[in-house]
Amino acid sequence: MKKCLVWLITVSLVFSVFVAFGPVSFAQKKTTPMKYNEAPMLAELVKAGKLPPVEERLPEEPLVYKEGEEVLAGDIKLEIGKYGGTLRIVNPGTPGGGEWWAISREPLLNQSGLGEPGKKPRGNVFKGFDMSKDAKVFTFYLRKGMRWSDGEPVTTDDVRFAYEDVLLNKELTPVFPVWLANADGTPFKLEIVDKYTFRVIFKNSYGLFPYTLSLHWQTWDSGPLLQPSHYMKKFHAKYTPIEKLQPLLKENGLGEKEWARLYWLYAWASWGLGKTKIGCPTLAPYVLVDMPTAQVAILRRNPYYWKVDTAGNQLPYIDEIRADTVTRVDMLPMKIMGGEVDFARQAVSIKEVALYKENEAKGGYKVKLLKFHCPIPITFNYSNPDPVWRKIVWDRRFREALNLAINRKEIIDAVYNGFASPSKITPSEYNPTKANQLLDSMGLNKRDADGWRLRPDGKRMELLIETSAPATDFIPLCELLVENWKSIGIYTTMKYVDSSLLGQRVQANQTQVVVSTWFDLPVIEGNPYMIDWVVLNDRAKISAGFYDWYTSFGKKGMEPPAAFKPVFTLYGKMKASTTPTEIKKYLETWKKTIHDTLFLLVPVEDIMIPLIVSEKLGNVPEKGYQILANFGGEVLFYR
Fold first, then answer.
1. Which residues contact 360 (CB under 8 A, 6 or more apart)?
2. Is the peptide bond before 95 cis (omega within 30 degrees of 0)?
3. Rounded Cα gap, residues 629 and 113, in angstroms
4. Is 278 exposed, middle or buried (CB count within 10 Å of its CB: 0-12, 13-18, 19+)?
5. Distance between CA 396 and CA 600 in Å, rounded?
């Protein structure tokens, strides 16, 4: 996820070069050979003959981690770290979660921070790339000598497998990813040049494509273009006869022909950790090695990790990660204050900052206040099966009334201790009187004996807010929304729902209002591809019906009404743009569409949030965006 403070400068520099000179190379400059060092635990394995020397485990040109690689230069004083130690993280619901997910992120290309003015996508997993003048042909270069975590080489065989046997396989990929499709919905064309070079060819211009590859966060998210074919073929019916898969199918409670579900159980296909993932090769800094219980995961350094620091030390510095679980997010503060957590970002909020500060010495940690990149959106299920409810919610006056009833000052003070600002992406006026007038004007002027507004069919107009509370600010925010909307006569309730169950309800089109995700505004400003990733490809944000319509290129699902169409079509125009003027124009128009239609509601923005780290932990950002501390997980170390 990337932020660019001045998007126009960024894309101007990028695309003016493209247009003027034709194909442009973004390959990593050849690094000067250096002497490499390794962690003591790996040196012992080398000495015992169980592991090749570090020089043979690294690619010919490893990525040299420098200041500004992840955290922006100036936001951190990068040090050469020390090897050793175990990083303890805790996540609500499932082990790992967002903490492990962000630490393990290895996009195919990369940018500094959340984006930086004048900086183009550069190599990461891929050494680099060239782009044609018309932004239709992209040539990518793998790192020679790079290996998966089990020691097998990374080659274009892994690209071919990912494309031909996964992306184009209807059982594994029933819906071809929109972000990899041509404008007509057909797949891109793959051309293998040699063992380390391949081309991706689109029918239409796709100037944003390099930016999509710099936002896909994690090794598994590289899956559409790169998978460990030598390992995953064991679960693929093309390479392993279905009869040989029967024991595994039975062991995992799957039907005799459900090999596709089995495949994704064993692949890195989600941010959750499970026993079936043990053994799956990765390019991330840490490898899942054990799950002693369903609530605990142990990850150990990747001996073939392909990054080094400027002194030639193979990364990561820390030996292991222990990922524990709490059943509810409100249990996390006790773990932190008890000194049981070394790194907490994903699930903490400003609400408990005073409590955290009071217990710093006791818990052996430090509290740092940094910027949060994701305000919380209120999202509506526009395809809800109840036609009367749906018609009401489609009416802009109803959404405007709900928005006018939100007391943002109360939310900022009560939930965020004053460390937030009223939203800009959606209007922030507080006017309950006007809200009531709007509801009356649209025919919701009749009430029952208890004072609740009635629908045209005589039933009570109700809203159920569902949240899985991935952070501690979600529940108090939802509680205030309930009171705000009740105050204008809308009978509103809220319910905490486990994340997996809520996902099932969203998938089944059973929800009304969901407040359980984030809206990555700073990232959208810097990289409009984020619109596709966290808005248009999120059922909870756009509803199951609209999602099916969008991802099937209009062949399935529910077509959005005319007022909502620009939310989808403007992104398509951005995607095809190759000039900074076009991109900027469409991005601003898209933001105005969200603002004017109130497609989703954002109560507050500019939130400050704690980052809680062990007092012994080094290479932690002092300012900037909180999530970047995760992005640089490979350089965290214990003093």
1. 366, 367, 615
2. no
3. 10
4. middle
5. 11
Whether residue 207 has pLDDT greater than 90: no
> Using one digit for the tens of pLDDT, what is the confidence trace for 520-564?
776 676 677 778 777 887 888 888 999 999 988 899 999 999 999
Compute φ and ψ for 480, nearest 5 degrees. -70, -35
Could you tell me where in the chain the CATH 3.90.76.10 domains are found?
7-70+113-235
Return the CATH fold of 242-373+610-638: D-Maltodextrin-Binding Protein; domain 2 (3.40.190)
* Number of neighbours of residue 479 by Cβ within 10 angstroms: 14
By CB atoms closer than 10 A (0-12, 13-18, 19+), residue 557 is middle
Contacts by 49-57 with C-beta closer than 8 Å and gap 24+? 51/303, 52/151, 54/314, 57/147, 57/151, 57/303, 57/304, 57/314
CA distances to 170, 472, 534 from 538, rounded to whole Å, are 21, 22, 6
Q: Is the pLDDT of residue 74 over 90?
A: no
Mean pLDDT of 193-222: 82
Question: What Cα–Cα distance (Å) separates residue 296 from each residue in 220, 514, 612?
Answer: 20, 29, 20
Contact 289, 299 (CB under 8 A): yes
Query: Where would I find the beta strands (DSSP E) of 149-259?
Result: 189-194, 197-201
In this prediction the pTM is 0.83
Structure tokens at 394: 């489609």
Share of the chain above pLDDT 90, in %: 65
> Do the Cβ atoms of 423 and 603 come closer than 8 Å?
yes
Start-to-end Cα distance in the chain: 29
Q: Which residue has the higher pLDDT, 378 or 17?
A: 378
Name the nearest CA neighbour of 216 among 3, 529, 6, 630: 529
CA distance 595 to 602: 10
Q: What is the mean pLDDT of residues 352-357?
A: 91
Are 526 and 9 a contacting pair, CB within 8 Å?
Answer: no
Report, at the CATH architecture level, how domain 379-605 is classified.
Roll (3.10)
What contacts 510, CB < 8 A, 6 or more positions away?
A: none
Of the candidate CATH numbers 3.90.76.10, 3.30.70.3270, 1.10.3720.10, 3.30.70.100, the domain formed by 7-70+113-235 belongs to 3.90.76.10
Q: What is the phi/psi pair of residue 130, to 5°? A: -115, 150
Compute the radius of gyration of the chain from its Cα atoms: 25
Instruction: At 98, list the tokens.
Output: 């967002």
- Whole-number Cα distances in Å, 168 to 142, 172, 222: 22, 8, 16
Q: Assign residue 245 a region: left if phi > 0, alpha if psi is -120 to 50, beta otherwise? A: alpha
* Cβ neighbours of residue 572 closer than 8 Å, sequence gap 6 or more: 183
Q: Residue range 394-398: average pLDDT?
A: 98
In 3D, which of 294, 243, 256, 286 has the Cα closest to residue 268? 286
Assign 8 a pLDDT band (cuts: 50, 70, 90).
very low
3-state secondary structure of 607: coil
Q: Which helix (H) or strand (E) holds 25?
A: strand 24-25
50-56, long-range: CB within 8 Å, 24+ apart, which pairs? 51/303, 52/151, 54/314
CB 375 within 8 A of CB 519: yes
CA distances from 86 to 41, 249, 316, 601 (A): 13, 35, 12, 41
